[in-house]
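Re-run with default settings, no changes from the original entry. Doing this only to confirm the output is reproducible before filing.
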Amino acid sequence: PSAVRRPEGSVFFRNINAPADSDGKVRDFVTDFIGIKTKAYSFWLSRKVTNWPQVGLFDNVADPYQLNNLAESDPALLADMMQQLKAGIPERFPIENLHPEVAARLNAAE
């Protein structure tokens, strides 16, 4: 039998409740955190949350505890991971549900 081909990376995201409608009911969700993890790197975009960076980029091999955020120090790697994230988002993913702050960062890379 042929060997199983593993994916190069995996996209992950977190959903939170969207604002309640006029009836006070939450009927939708907002994705406020989205990223991709490869064997070598972890990369994510987040909305503004207290003391939490909005962009995270970590070397999974050299920095397994993710203590050194490379997002500002390696713009070429950041651009590459942004493209990998965009390419990895499934077509069926509701991009319109991205939190506006996250969508702005994702769209700024175009």
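The two ends are 41 Å apart (CA to CA). The helical segments are 75-88, 100-108.
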